[in-house]
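Illustration 12: NAB domain-containing protein.
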Amino acid sequence: TVRKKKKMSEITTKNQPSKTHWWWLDEHTAVRRSPWLQSTLTELNEKTKAMLKLIEEDADSFAQRAEMFYKKRPELVSMVEDFYKIHRLLAERYDQVRPEAGIRLLPPSARLMHSQSEKLMSFDYRGYDSYSENCDVEESVESEIDDPEHEGEVRSAAPNEVTKLLKDIERVGEVKKTDKDQIKQKDEILDEVMMLREEIERLRKEKEAHKDELAQKDIIFNDVVLNLREEIEQLKKDNKTTNNEVRQKNIIRSEVMKLKEEIERLRKENEAQKEEIKKKDSISNEVMKLRTELERCKKDNKAQNDELKKKDSISNEVMKLRKELERRKKENKAQNDELKHKDTIRDELTMLKEERESFREENKTQKIDLKRKDQEKIEVIRQLSSTIDLLKQENVKLKSFIAKESAKKWKTPFEFDKLIETFSGKLFKGGPRRIKPSVVAL
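Figure caption equivalent — predicted structure in token form:
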């Protein structure tokens, strides 16, 4: 796996472009550039640098590189679309400013002027410059005027023809001047077209280079994925083998424990037998026992030698057992701490139970007090209801009495008021005596 990783790192370092590879990204100096071309070229340079920055970014591992590549893939696709749009716009602009396209779009009169300008250009290319042509025209005019034979013809010619010739000469001079301006403009346009062609060719090459780099990165990513899958399979196999080894070690550990117990038992038997030999009184018996003990010791030594050989083979297992014992001790310590914590929790639970019992007792007493108070309230309500009934009866009697008395004819209203006061005094004198027990109960 390490070798594969090294190979893949070498492949990626080879495929990565160096800083000198982007020499073509330097700005090309030009004498004349239109504002539109300058803005287009600056935008193109910025997008190219952004794309190169995305491509040149590195990561620590192949998986991270692949993840970065797939994350940045949509951005790269959008940049390629922008390059395509710029390339197409440049091509359309070039097709518009091309001389053949301009001639096709001109009207017939302009085409005639263009043919005349081409003729003048052919004269210029043959070796006649503008100064020599002007001199030739002036000399021809002067020769025609200075010639005495032709002078009579000129004088006999109509003045309209002279003016016509002068106008034609002026028109030819103006046409020549306009043609020269057009030639200069066309030269400028041709220079710009050549620069655009170079820029388009450069963009096309950049596009091809980006496509090649993307294809190489796809290949690298596929190789990385395959290597990772192989490593995963190898790790699965290694885990399987380690699990089998752990099982075998557990079996060996149990056998070692059994052997240790057997050795301890044999050692104790040897010590007991030695003590018995010392206790013997007679030398002969001791000698015989010593002989037998020697034979047995030889056998024991032989067995111990065999066991020592086995111990040498499993010394590593013994060390592992010690480590396991240390771990168990730590676990026991942690369990003891948990038990102590549980004891404290148990004490808190007992305290809470006692508090709960005390609260229950208080609740019982409170319930008894509430029942007693409820009974007292019921008694008070009963007494109040009885007093209210009595008041209602007396009120009915009072109303009937008032009705009877009102039927009679009173002499003065003063007597009626006096009668009401007497009845009301009787009523309120008897009432509080009856309500007194209920107030005491409350």
